[in-house]
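Note to self: user wants both folds in one dump. Writing first protein now.
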Amino acid sequence: MKAGEAAKAAGVTRKALRYYEPAGLLVPRRLDNGYREYSPDDVRLAIEIRTLTAIGLSPKETEPFLDCLRGGHASGDECPEALAVHDRKIRATDRLIARLSRTRRQLAGQLRAAAGEPFTHRHEPQEDTVLPQAVPLPDNLPAPADDGAAVHLPAVCCRR
């Protein structure tokens, strides 16, 4: 099938398919006129790349999954090399979460100190919450001075 058909079947763009080729992830057959011809297996690989990149893997990190599929496995997750990629990505994500949690605690501490009073977070993030609710500010904070730095932004309110 042609690139447009393969891209549609895989849920990716033609540009993505063209990117996968020099990256060594897909190797479509070339016709005599130079056009690429994609097989159902190529589409399956493109779907695997799309699925894995959607959960945070880089295209390069999808290689063991693609090799597993090329090896005749029903799923790209069936090979030890692919499972190792999952493990590395989970550990990297855990490190990122820990770093972001430290940053959040530091920011909350600075906010409490800047407010000059005990300041509690009424909206602590839940474990499955991606973005916590905004922390309400104390009523006694002074209004910020307008330095004109945002004058180029469109007005979003009727008051100025």
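First done. Writing the second protein, which came from a different request thread.
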Amino acid sequence: MVRWRSGTVVSLRGSWRGAVELDVFVDGSPMRALAYPPLVGTPVAGDRVLLNVGALTMGLGTGGYALVVAIPDRLPPDPASAGTSRDSGHLVKARYTPLQPILLGVDEEASPHRSALVEAGSLDGMPVVTADLHSALPAILAGVTMTRPAARVAYVMTDGGALPAWFSRTLSGLASSLAGTITAGQSFGGDLEASTVHTALLAARHVLSADVTIVTQGPGNLGTGTTWGFSGVSVGEAINAIGTLGGRPIGSLRISDGDGRPRHRGVSHHSLTAYGKVALLPADLVVPLGLPPALAREVSSALAPLAARHRMVEVPVEGLYDALLDLPVTLSTMGRSLAQDRSYFLAAAAAGHHAATLVASGAS
């Protein structure tokens, strides 16, 4: 459960959209911490803070921080009055946890977008790229923008990983390149809030006027090493939502020859389960051309059973590596860089490139 600590803020290390990184002294020892000012207020040196240190002390993946739960001696003011801001909504996320935020849902009665979403029922054939990991987001975006620089790209963040969008430095760095972020389900902190992936997809199309939308979970990934025990099964559920709403589902495959775990080499078992067993509607599964020969053979063999349901689309990768190098954010997946897992990032970029070819050349 929760491992509680009390500490004192020593200094602020830096910040990005929605988050502040801190140095905190706890029992006489320094500790790296993270605060979300929209939730707990803005900490300053000398503040006493209450911390959840569980993920940090256990050394869990992306949880390399103590998380500020409260600044108890200097509480933030109440949100703005009802009817004047996004705080006028009734959409509760991270429900019935001590830090549940109450937000304005994009389709609530008080939302300026209410009428558009009441009338919306289709994605009008919009290409939507799904991926297992948050780290695929910038690579997919690179593939889209290389091919259709004027295309409007929206991001739908599901709740399989981090719930606050503010945790993602990548998302902060990509903000100017996206039409907007919509946080769906229990996730929160996007430009728009949606209760379901379905509503988020409709908002991407009819509120943000997206030409292409990308769907991934937030940073982090729950996995147990079993067939069904990983948060990325939601990728298959997203394919079903996209197809049901009249979009064009495009699956970015998790392909790697840099991952040391056998279950993730070649095509990850996450992709094979999500697309092969959870997705009930057909999608374009993008296979990048030019993979190392041994990897290409592994990929072809692994995907053969999925061809009965899905369309296997082979996509050339010329120019995509340079597009990845030009991104304003650093690429990293499970601690591996672009150079260390080139095939993973090229596969994601190829999915973005394919999506862009389905967008009219005049998209803007």
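Dump finished. Worth passing along: The chain is about 25% helix and 25% strand.
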